[in-house]
Amino acid sequence: MASASIPKDxxxxxxxxxxxxxxxxxxxxxxxxxxxxxxAAQYDDEAWGExxxxxxxxxxxxxxx
Length: 65
What we know:
Radius of gyration: 14 Å
Distance between the termini: 38 Å
């Protein structure tokens, strides 16, 4: 299977975002974590057949859990 090459600047930006996300999770900063998801975030709760879209939707899931 062929994979597309990611330009170094985009790869670096992705890695920075993941590292920021992990730091925020470790600091229990939910609002900060949600900001790292962007507008296209989606969380699927397979067990209940529910889907939460966007940062606000993902936040609703975490606040209701």
